[in-house]
Design goal:
The complex is a heterodimer of chains A (292) and B (276). Chain A has one domain: MetI-like (MetI-like fold), CATH 1.10.3720. Helices cover 76% and strands 0% of the residues of chain A. In chain A, helix 4 runs parallel beside helix 8, helix 4 packs antiparallel against helix 11 and helix 13 runs antiparallel to helix 14. Chain A starts with a helix and ends with a helix. Chain B has 276 residues and is an all-alpha fold. Chain B contains 14 helices and no strands. The longest helix of chain B is centred in the last third of the chain and has 32 residues. The two termini of chain B are 18 Å apart. Classes of the chains: A mainly alpha (292), B mainly alpha (276). The interface between A and B is large, with 100 and 96 residues.
């Protein structure tokens, strides 16, 4: 009896979490893979005999789909502009905060972190007001210095940049904390030794600070990149992919196919394209790190 | 102590000024939100805009609750927050299980946990909906809550912490005749306070902000969360910015207050979690 009890105990601890995880996280991966090779849609949901195996047809169709190609291009632009902006700005904030170890550091740390804990819908609503062409604060401030009204969310290209600004603003907090934690682990001796050698501040930054933080930078860059490849909430809540599909992203495309048009098979296929992109991007970064 | 030092007061002033300007810019949306939420309908749209409300009013906040069901959305959101804490308990139990027990296929199970961590949410979104649909849980509170209860990343972080608890401590308790669950609740949980504090706050924030999943699963307005309700409000009152700002402020301010009270645990938590 006692033997039985001791074999079963670990499963009592991991059991509840594992069951939920198997049903709602692990099984869905397999289901997604399976339905991406079928034509499953709303009628298939009601009647399973309506579902047909169609092989790679969804994937072939995707790459001929003008909307999907535009979403891929937009996602690429989001990544190319968003990742460096997000990593550099959070790094600069961490660097400035690290000059202090008193109330200045703790107060501003909180201020810069707050956007990342707040609700995306609430944030979207506020920014849409700020961006409003007629009543928005931004265009009013620009009018004070005689700049014409900017079509923040009305022009496909400007709208992309407007969304990037919001996302960078929102994501800075967490990366900043990781950078700050890394900065604080650099031994002071290094800087003191550099001082004795007469190194200037730029030399200290490039020769001591940056190399000591290579892991934190790598970690932040990888997670930021994965996040931007999945860019979804801002275009979803603020522009719904518009204008003229100009802010649509791959993730939003998946949502639209799955939940607006109920094309489950097609949407699932798109999700595997996204998954593949994420894996490739991550592997490339690991490769780069090795060659460093 | 800081690593790189500023040489004199002049440099110090410049850096503080930079931080101050940056801080104002970052907080600007929140400041504008709160000030606008207190303005009358007419003043919100006035050109040139006013900074401070000339005639502060709480009419928008009152309207949210009197006419716009925000009381229902608030209750739903709090239900989700409440159940998310059970999820945290399950995560903690699993983290302890993986950290402190030896059992068959432990590695395999743990790899499954890690795999689910690497899958983007958009991949599992559609099938999770289909699975819940088969279970007839769409448009129910259970359907909203269940998929989000367990987070592999949290299990992973908690496991990392559990590994650092000395085995001798658990052995000693066993010799004293304590059962496994007694040990877990009376010994392990109190020891895990630092990691649990940060997990609890992050779980609270995530549950309070939950938006996409409730939106997908709930068709019925009586199941909407605050953020889904706010999105609806925004669709239906496109130009009533005062009302929208009040709704946003109602979502943002509680979370900021909770964060301000507990933020030092989050910062410490990043260090105990080993992400450096």
């Amino acid at each position: 009896m006692n033997k039985f009890k001791s074999t079963i105990t670990p499963y009592l601890f991991i059991g509840p979490a594992l069951i939920l995880l198997l049903i709602f996280s692990f099984a869905p991966i397999l289901v997604a893979l399976a339905i991406s090779f079928t034509d499953m849609n709303l009628s298939g949901l009601a009647n399973w005999s309506q579902i047909h195996f169609i092989g790679l047809e969804n994937f072939i169709k995707l790459f001929h789909d003008e909307t999907f190609r535009q979403a891929m291009l937009n996602t690429l632009i989001y990544v190319v502009i968003g990742v460096p902006s997000a990593v550099i700005s959070s790094f600069v904030i961490a660097l400035l905060l690290n000059f202090f170890s008193n109330w200045v550091s703790s107060t501003f740390r909180v201020i810069f972190y707050v956007p990342s804990i707040t609700n995306i819908v609430a944030i979207a609503v506020v920014w849409m007001f700020l961006y409003n062409q007629e009543y928005g604060l931004f265009n009013y401030l620009l009018s004070l210095i005689d700049v014409d009204a900017v079509p923040w969310l009305e022009d496909p290209l400007v709208a992309k940049l407007s969304l990037i600004l919001i996302a960078v603003w929102k994501s800075n907090g967490i990366s900043m904390l990781i950078f700050l934690a890394a900065l604080q682990t650099i031994p002071r001796m290094y800087y003191e030794a550099a001082d004795i050698d007469g190194a200037n501040r730029f030399q200290k930054l490039t020769k001591i600070t940056l190399p000591s933080m290579s892991f934190a930078t790598f970690f932040v860059t990888v997670t930021t990149l994965i996040g931007w490849l999945q860019f979804f909430e801002e275009p979803f809540v603020i522009t719904d992919g518009g204008p003229l599909n100009g802010t649509n992203s791959i993730a939003l495309f998946i949502y639209q196919e799955g939940f607006q048009y109920s094309e489950f098979g097609y949407g699932a296929a798109a999700s595997f394209v996204l998954f593949a992109l994420i894996i490739v991007a991550t592997l490339v970064q690991f490769k780069f790190r090795k060659t460093d | 102590m800081t690593a790189m030092q500023l040489k004199n007061n002049f440099e110090k002033t410049i850096v503080i000024a930079l931080l101050f300007v940056g801080g104002i810019l970052v907080s600007l949306p929140f400041i504008w939100m709160i000030l606008s939420s207190l303005k009358t309908d007419k003043e919100v749209l006035s050109i040139p805009p006013t900074l401070f409300p000339q005639d502060p009013t709480f009419q928008h906040y009152i309207e949210l609750f009197q006419n716009l069901n925000f009381d229902v959305y608030l209750v739903n959101t709090l239900i989700i927050v409440f159940f998310s804490m059970f999820g945290l308990l399950f995560n903690t139990m699993a983290g302890y299980g993986f950290g402190k027990f030896q059992f068959r296929f432990k590695e395999t199970w743990f790899i499954i946990v890690l795999i689910t961590m690497m899958i983007p949410g958009q991949v599992t979104m559609i099938p999770t909906y289909l699975i819940l649909n088969e279970m007839e849980l769409t448009n129910t509170m259970a359907g909203i809550i269940l998929p989000g209860l367990i987070a592999a990343f949290n299990i992973f972080l908690i496991r990392q912490f559990m590994v650092t608890i000395p085995d001798d401590l658990i052995e000693a308790a066993k010799l004293d005749g304590a059962g496994q669950f007694y040990i877990f609740f009376k010994l392990i949980l109190p020891l895990s306070k630092p990691i649990l504090a940060v997990q609890a706050i992050l779980t609270f924030i995530a549950a309070w902000n939950s938006f996409l999943w409730p939106l997908i699963i709930a068709n019925d307005q009586s199941l909407y969360t605050l953020s889904v309700g706010l999105a609806l409000l925004q669709d239906e009152n496109v130009t009533n910015y005062g009302l929208q700002m009040a709704g946003s402020a109602f979502m943002v301010i509680p979370i900021v207050i909770i964060f301000l009270i507990f933020q030092k645990y989050i910062v410490e938590g990043f260090n105990v979690s080993g992400i450096k």
